[in-house]
Q: What sequence folds into this?
């Protein structure tokens, strides 16, 4: 077992460490100077639904962070000098602290759809889409609710931003992460000052006085140094990493996904599919119209991005897979989770093009794009439908991309062009399956790289490498194009006519099922 060091080695490997606090895993990835993964570690966790709020425990987050780093070190074959490290995490949500950084209320994650009134008021006030998961929507909703913690509120940040502060003492996040808290100015440099003033006036009209620039973390950009691992930070990590290691700015999982797929230039896009799902499309120019269903965020360098975000992706399917695993256990058969997912995904290729009327709506949580506040997952079929395993699994996989398709349809009039669409995240680990269905859903060629399943933590490690290795005036786009991804192994799948036809037929039924979802919610079933 090797060690993570921070001092010059006469011989040996230098590396860059990316850690992501994701929705199902806290994962650490260490890459070498050729940008290949040399070790990884992870910790499984999941959100809990407590008092009507989806949340994660900060105590478990800290324990999981240590566990992921410890797991990585146990997989090291040699000592490695960590030249730079950085944290990524789930974007959006509400983490509120007092002046001494004591947590005031449980973490309210991106999954929550409890801020509709605030989001609508802010969107009207700013004439800029403020989705329910944006941090500022959570703050205004807390004001509207008259919550008791507000007089003590001194800091708002993100999951990655909070642990970056704990490890370095620096209260700052990368611009893409900040765009999940509050809108960014057109030049991509800082929060939009005009919108800050309008929001402060709105808050005052509700009886709450705030200096938002003091509440929000400072903004930094990709390539900047954002502090070093402090002595206290090293102790928090059980001494697994020595103090002094430089940090890249804390980055959102949207930004690290863009980097991991080389999708940071205009007319590039990527789809990240895991517990949640989102498509990020880097824009050539701002959208002409306001779309309440489409978020505007940024790349890690501040370029505008149209984000189609779905709260629900694999969570519902994961539960079915666990049930299938329990069934196998009844017969004394043990199959690894990876093997079970692979076999099930591959079985879907034998399903009917339109799943023969079997339709899955995977809404465990609400969904802003379809205006559903509370999730009720269900499976429905016609009496004559063939309820086979391939059709059942295929319908689940189609359902992962269905809400994204609805969002993409909304901006068809905007002439948004995508030269390349990349897929990454757990859905794409089984080669040629999720990738094929995404191509059908978006009616576009989809490329997956060799590390498609690594996603965010790999992107964070690349941002750490860029922080140290960038040449004078080198752009992130050039760094990724010329140094990281040139010559990398990848596979591209073009949409097949029969797949597109089948997915479109599935969508006709899916739209009807969304109306049913709304009726189920209204009936409080």
A:
């Amino acid at each position: 077992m090797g060690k993570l060091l921070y001092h010059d080695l006469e011989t040996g490997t230098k590396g860059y460490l990316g850690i992501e606090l994701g929705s199902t895993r806290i994962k650490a990835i260490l890459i070498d100077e050729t940008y290949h993964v040399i070790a990884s570690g992870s910790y499984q966790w999941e959100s809990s639904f407590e008092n009507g709020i989806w949340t994660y425990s900060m105590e478990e987050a800290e324990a999981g962070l240590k566990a992921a780093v410890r797991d990585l070190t146990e997989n090291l074959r040699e000592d490695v000098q960590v030249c730079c490290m950085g944290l990524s995490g789930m974007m959006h949500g509400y983490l509120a602290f007092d002046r001494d950084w004591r947590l005031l209320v449980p973490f309210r994650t991106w999954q929550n759809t409890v801020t509709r009134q605030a989001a609508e008021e802010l969107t009207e006030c700013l004439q800029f889409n403020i989705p329910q998961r944006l941090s500022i929507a959570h703050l205004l909703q807390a004001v509207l609710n008259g919550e008791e913690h507000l007089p003590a509120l001194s800091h708002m940040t993100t999951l990655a931003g909070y642990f970056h502060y704990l490890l370095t003492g620096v209260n700052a996040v990368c611009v893409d992460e900040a765009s999940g808290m509050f809108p960014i100015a057109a030049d991509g440099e800082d929060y939009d000052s005009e919108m800050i003033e309008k929001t402060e006036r709105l808050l005052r009209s509700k009886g709450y006085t705030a200096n938002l620039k003091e509440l929000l973390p400072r903004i930094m950009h990709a390539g900047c140094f954002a502090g070093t691992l402090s002595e206290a930070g090293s102790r928090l990590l059980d001494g697994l990493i020595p103090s002094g290691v430089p940090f890249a700015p804390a980055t959102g999982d949207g930004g690290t996904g863009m980097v991991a797929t080389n999708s940071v230039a205009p007319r590039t896009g990527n789809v990240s599919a895991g517990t949640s799902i989102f498509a990020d499309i880097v824009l050539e120019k701002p959208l002409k119209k306001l779309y309440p269903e489409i978020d505007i965020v940024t790349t890690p360098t501040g370029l505008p991005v149209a984000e189609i975000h779905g709260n629900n992706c694999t969570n519902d399917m994961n539960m079915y897979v666990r049930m299938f695993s329990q069934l196998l256990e009844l017969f004394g058969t043990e199959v690894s989770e990876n093997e079970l997912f692979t076999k099930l995904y591959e079985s879907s290729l034998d399903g009917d093009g339109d799943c023969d009327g079997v339709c899955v709506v995977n809404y465990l949580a609400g969904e802003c794009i379809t205006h559903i506040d509370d999730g009720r997952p269900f499976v429905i079929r016609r009496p004559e439908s063939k309820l086979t395993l391939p059709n059942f699994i295929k319908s689940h996989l189609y359902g992962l991309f269905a809400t994204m398709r609805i969002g993409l349809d909304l901006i068809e009039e905007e002439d948004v062009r995508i030269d390349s669409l990349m897929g990454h995240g757990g859905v794409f680990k089984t080669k040629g399956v999720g990738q094929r269905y995404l191509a059908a859903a978006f009616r576009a060629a989809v490329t997956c790289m060799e590390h498609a399943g690594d996603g965010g933590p790999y992107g964070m490690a690349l941002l750490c490498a860029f922080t140290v290795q960038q040449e004078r005036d080198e752009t992130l786009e050039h760094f990724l194009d010329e140094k990281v991804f040139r010559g990398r192994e990848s596979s591209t799948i073009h949409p097949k006519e029969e797949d597109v036809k089948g997915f479109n037929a599935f969508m006709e039924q899916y739209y009807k099922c969304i109306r049913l979802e709304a009726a189920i919610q209204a009936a409080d079933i």
